[in-house]
Amino acid sequence: MNTQEPQSMVSRCDATTCRFNEDMNCTAGQIEVSLSGQTAQCLTFTPTEGMSDSYGMTAENN
Length: 62
Ligand code: SF4
Prior knowledge:
Layout: E1 21-22, E2 25-26, E3 33-36, E4 39-42
Antiparallel strand pairs: 1-2, 3-4
Bound molecules: iron/sulfur cluster (SF4).
Protein name: DUF1540 domain-containing protein
InterPro entries: DUF1540
Pfam families: DUF1540 (PF07561)
């Protein structure tokens, strides 16, 4: 696997449909990741607006 820096959990993310994904980089300040086996699932994943309207939620903080 990639070398991981202590400050940054994610060095590269394949979830390009996530609104935090910027050119395969995660721009979210803090994320939660669930590890199961060899698969890491990001719990912070949020679909880009417009990509899917089946999600009615927003991840914006007030
Ligand atoms: S929030 Fe999660 S899914 Fe979205 S870009 Fe960051 S690591 Fe990837």
